[in-house]
Write a structure and sequence with these properties.
Blueprint: E1 5-6, E2 19-20, H1 25-36, E3 42-47, E4 50-55, H2 56-63, E5 83-88
Parallel strand pairs: 1-2
Antiparallel strand pairs: 3-4, 3-5
């Protein structure tokens, strides 16, 4: 079984499959630090109506965009769709 953790609980730990994100600044900073180290990771956006896999760089870009209220709106299939979970993909 893989180890599962939330990125803000272990900020010094390198991101890998098993890392989950919430919407807090600490989780976003952990993702940003990973991108700056050159880690080539993907993130799963698990939604009510499906899943999308995006690059960690794209995730950081979306989370850093203060001009939008809901960073993942372009991935939603309808106004009733929501993101349920966000985690590092196993690719």
């Amino acid at each position: 079984m893989n180890d599962i953790w939330i990125a803000h609980d272990e900020p010094e730990r390198p991101l890998a499959f098993g890392a989950w994100f919430c919407s807090c600044d600490s989780c976003t900073m952990a993702a940003k630090a990973s991108v700056e180290r050159g880690d080539n990771l993907s993130v799963v956006l698990k939604r009510n109506m499906g899943r999308d896999v995006i690059s960690l760089d794209k995730y950081v870009e979306l989370m850093g965009n203060v001009n939008i209220n809901y960073p993942f709106q372009d991935y939603m299939e309808s106004s009733e769709d929501t993101v349920r979970e966000i985690f590092i993909a196993d690719v």
